[in-house]
């Protein structure tokens, strides 16, 4: 049975094709502690790419409120149910990935995706038409204790919580849509790892809609083809950040390129946050796709919930983020300030005195101070008899 190395789950795994990594891999980091769910990213993408007939339900970029929001409805809950028991032993995933749940022998030609039927051999489900009708399902719905007029939060992990989760195509190393397409109309570009659908070759078998666990391959009934996020490659080819990155008001999105762990470069911003500091983590790594969008976990949500989303590195990532907030990680602080300070992708950064400097292919494209002046107010205001949630 063919196997591929998946560093995110700490082991080899079964996959329908041989391992074939691109020359470099398109990647992103999102800081969930700064997302305000203004949906500017969603509209920037919508008005650029999915405003035609047949795309009304499509949001290649969307922002969900967790734990109750999802688009399409229940995409992650339903996928977790399909996957069954998922257990980690340290940093090694002991459960089955979506390609291993049915114990398929991918060496057998009868099981190969080009012969059809692969959608029955992997975990997945097909959303119904109604599932796409509620892009703001669960928005700002809280989880935890009941809120009263005297509720206030003294700890970073809140007893009443929710957090925002912006999502785009992860341009996975082992993409479920590409691994499942029976006509091989989906492919990864060798030059940057962006996952694309060849619309001329697409036969609308809809296997990609079912086999993408993140539900980012979507059917266009007017064109009778499937479509998906293209990573704004016309912009990234010129060194510019994608539309949703450039328009992000919260400045949470960093675009660049990621190396494998044994080839990590600490001057590469994505490598630095993912490999060296282990601060940014993949979304549902247990699915087995090695997604290339990474998230800095929100510090206000419970660790057990975040571990389900981002794997076993959550606790250390939160501690590192807290250390950054306390001024103990100036490199991280400077790099996170660089996010959103330039329209360019960042392929390198450095600390220059009290400033962080960003580069694209050797050219300086951004420079920001590591620290900015702040004022801190008391948590409790005696004159107003109220507790403040935001004190800086």
Automatic annotation (TrEMBL):
Matching InterPro entries, A to Z? 4Fe4S_Fe-S-bd (IPR017896)
Keyword Repeat found: yes
Instruction: List GO molecular-function terms, semicolon-separated.
Output: 4 iron, 4 sulfur cluster binding; electron transfer activity; metal ion binding
On the tree of life, the source organism's domain of life is Archaea
Q: Which cofactor does it need?
A: [4Fe-4S] cluster; [3Fe-4S] cluster
- Gene Ontology annotations for the cellular component aspect, listed alphabetically: membrane
Positions of the region Disordered? 105-144
Q: Which residues form the 4Fe-4S ferredoxin-type domain?
A: 26-55, 193-222
Q: Which GO terms describe its biological process?
A: anaerobic respiration
Keywords for this protein: 4Fe-4S, Electron transport, Iron, Iron-sulfur, Metal-binding, Repeat, Transport
Q: Where in the cell is it found?
A: Cell envelope
Q: What is its main location?
A: other
Q: Which residues form a coiled coil?
A: none
The name under which this protein is listed is Anaerobic dehydrogenase iron-sulfur binding subunit 1
**Species annotation:** Halobiforma nitratireducens JCM 10879
Lineage start: Archaea, Methanobacteriati, Methanobacteriota, Stenosarchaea group, Halobacteria
């Amino acid at each position: 049975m063919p196997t591929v190395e998946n560093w995110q789950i700490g082991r080899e795994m079964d996959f329908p094709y041989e391992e074939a990594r691109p020359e470099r891999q398109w990647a992103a980091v999102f800081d969930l502690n700064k997302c305000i769910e203004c949906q500017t990213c969603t509209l920037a993408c919508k008005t650029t790419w999915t405003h035609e007939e047949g795309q009304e339900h499509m949001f290649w970029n969307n922002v969900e409120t967790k734990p109750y929001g999802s688009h399409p409805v229940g995409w992650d809950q339903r996928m977790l149910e399909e996957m069954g028991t998922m257990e980690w032993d340290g940093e090694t995933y002991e459960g089955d990935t979506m390609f291993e749940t049915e114990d398929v022998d991918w060496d057998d030609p009868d099981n190969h995706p080009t012969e059809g039927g692969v959608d029955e051999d992997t975990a997945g489900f097909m959303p119904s038409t109604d599932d796409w009708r509620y892009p703001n399902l669960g928005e700002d719905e809280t989880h935890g204790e009941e809120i009263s007029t005297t509720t206030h939060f003294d700890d970073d992990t809140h007893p009443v919580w929710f957090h925002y989760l912006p999502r785009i195509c992860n341009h996975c190393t082992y993409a479920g849509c590409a691994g499942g397409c029976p006509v091989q109309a989906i492919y990864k570009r060798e030059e940057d790892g962006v996952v694309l659908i060849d619309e001329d070759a697409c036969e609308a078998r809809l296997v990609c809609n079912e086999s993408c666990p993140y539900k980012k391959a979507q059917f266009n009934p007017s064109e009778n083809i499937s479509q998906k996020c293209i990573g704004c490659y016309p912009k990234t080819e010129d060194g510019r950040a994608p539309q949703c990155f450039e328009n992000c008001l919260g400045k949470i999105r960093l675009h660049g390129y990621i190396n494998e762990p044994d080839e990590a470069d600490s001057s590469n911003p994505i490598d630095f946050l993912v490999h060296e500091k282990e601060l940014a983590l993949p979304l549902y790594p247990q699915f087995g796709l090695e997604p290339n969008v990474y998230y800095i976990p929100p510090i206000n949500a419970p660790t057990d919930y975040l571990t389900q989303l981002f794997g076993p590195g959550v606790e250390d990532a939160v501690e590192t983020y807290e250390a950054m907030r306390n001024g103990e990680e100036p490199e991280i602080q400077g790099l996170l300030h660089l996010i959103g300070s330039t329209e360019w992708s960042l392929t390198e950064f450095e600390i220059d005195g009290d400033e962080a400097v960003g580069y694209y292919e050797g050219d300086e494209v951004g420079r920001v101070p590591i620290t900015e002046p702040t004022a801190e107010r008391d948590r409790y205001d005696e004159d107003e008899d109220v507790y403040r949630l935001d004190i800086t």
